[in-house]
Amino acid sequence: MSELWGVVAAAASSALGGTSIAATRYLVGHLDPLAIGSFRFGIGCLLLAPVALLGDRSWPDRRDWLQTAGLGLLFFALFPILFNASLIHTSSARGALALSTLPLLSLVVGAALGRERLTARKTAGVLIAMAGVGFALLSGLGHAPPQAWRGDLLMIAAALCMALYGIWSKPVIGRCGPIPFTTVAMAVGAAALILISLLRGSFEAVAQFAVPQWSAALYLGVIGAALTFYLWAFALGKASPTSVAVTVTVNPVTASLVAAALLNEPIGWNLVIGIVVVGIGIWLATTDGQGVRASG
After folding, report:
1. Which residues form the EamA domain (predicted)?
2. How many structural domains are present in the chain?
3. Residue 119 lies in a domain
4. From CA 76, how far away is CA 169, in angstroms rounded?
5. How is residue 203 annotated by DSSP?
6. In a 10 Å sphere around its CB, with 0-12 CB exposed, 13-18 middle and 19+ buried, how is residue 258 labelled?
7. In terms of CB atoms within 10 Å, which of 34, 245, 274, 285 comes out highest?
8. Burial (0-12, 13-18, 19+ Cβ within 10 Å), 223
């Protein structure tokens, strides 16, 4: 049951993450990637901090400080830079598809680090889910900006950061809880992004913001950071990294729906079939009870 709740939380996080892709795709036309990350994780950290202070779980132990800070820089500084920069060059659909390589990367990296065993069922589930994503986005993949491959590669690099974070953070989350860990890690990443943004003058464009830009920035902070990454950390505390990662295939579906509504990016009839295939893949990958090893 614990694994199931972890998968449900991860799927909810991934669905919300898909809406964040569309919001980021909108905002990159008005603000540089560093400043977008600063707003997203700065607001997210401010919202999570009171919850962490009022909770009954401990903060990361002294032995975990260096690892927590390093993971914060990896996931809440480097990841958003790569993620946001990728959406300058590619569409929401292609970016989401590139991000959906996460479960495969998690599976391979987890096996290489000895955290998870490769099993036929889990591998098949991951590949089926990724195939479902590709089919769901088939109609939108042909409408790519020039040099979209640059954005695709940047998003795959972001997915690798996410895979490493998922594997390395699980033991620390188990010791202190998802909210304290996420708050501290997010604070480290946000501080780095804000400092670099100030030095680069990245916030100058904010003076031109109107209601739509402020709404997108607030949405990214409240939903795209605080809620999304709390759910992701909660999931990592309950389920294996690959079981959590495979739910990221939900992300492109919600990204496509929001992008179609707000950015007029096309979707086709194949979306419904793709959703069904994604669901089958997630079920296969997350009901394999033999592939997880204890980590700690």
Report:
1. 4-136, 150-286
2. 1
3. yes
4. 13
5. G
6. buried
7. 245
8. middle
Identify whether 293 is part of a domain. Answer: no
Three-state secondary-structure class, residue 47: helix
Query: Is 295 within the bounds of a domain?
Result: no
Of 123, 139, 41, give the one whose Cα is nearest residue 91.
139
Please, is 8 exposed, middle or buried when counting C-beta atoms within 10 Å of its C-beta (0-12, 13-18, 19+)? middle
Q: Which residue has the tokens 């998870």?
A: 116
Residue 57 in tokens: 């779980």
Name the β-bridge partners of 292.
116
Could you tell me the CA-to-CA distances from 246 to 21, 37, 48 in Å, in that order?
A: 17, 24, 25
Structure tokens at 265: 């990016």
Domain that holds residue 89: 2-286
Q: Rounded to whole angstroms, how far apart are CA atoms 104 and 159?
A: 10
Alpha-carbon gap, residue 159 to 99, rounded angstroms: 5
Written as one string, the DSSP assignment of 106-149 is: HHHHHHHTTSB---HHHHHHHHHHHHHHHHHTHHHHTSPPTTHH
d(CA 228, CA 135) in angstroms, rounded, equals: 25
Task: Give the ranges where the chain is alpha helix by DSSP (H).
Answer: 2-27, 33-54, 65-73, 79-89, 92-99, 102-112, 120-136, 138-141, 148-176, 178-200, 211-221, 228-238, 241-245, 251-262, 270-286
| Residue pLDDT, tens place only, 91-149 | 766 777 777 778 878 888 888 887 777 778 877 877 887 777 667 656 555 566 777 77
Q: What is the pLDDT of residue 291?
A: 43
Is residue 223 situated within a structural domain? yes
